[in-house]
Design goal:
Elements: E1 12-15, E2 32-38, E3 48-49, E4 63-68, E5 74-75, E6 80-87
Antiparallel strand pairs: 1-2, 2-6, 3-5, 4-6
Length: 98
């Protein structure tokens, strides 16, 4: 029987809710944490490497990465890292009537 795939395939699972509740302008939220777990095939060389984490939202500058234990190091199957995020609502100019 042949191989299913040509090489080791990294995979991950994540858990954690980064939904932020309403907050006052200029205030900083409590930290929300997401856990990323390497879910590759154990012993198959399918280590997961997370090179970086970025913010991608309509108002990405409202969010800050408070800590990141995932970036840079290979994560063998079953190991995990965390990314902690905060929100700080910046003042915005009022919308102009159309």
């Amino acid at each position: 029987m042949g191989k299913l795939f040509a090489g080791a395939v990294p995979a991950f699972t994540s858990s954690g809710d980064v939904g932020f509740a309403d907050q006052l302008v200029g205030s900083t939220s409590a930290t929300k944490t997401v856990t990323a777990t390497s879910a590759g095939v154990p012993g198959a060389g399918s280590n997961l490497t997370i090179n970086g984490v970025t913010r991608g939202a309509a108002n990405a500058s409202d969010y800050a990465i408070a800590s990141n234990t995932c970036a840079g190091a290979p994560m063998p199957s079953g190991s995990a890292g965390t990314v902690a995020v905060t929100s700080r609502r910046a003042p915005r100019a009022p919308a102009r009537p159309g």
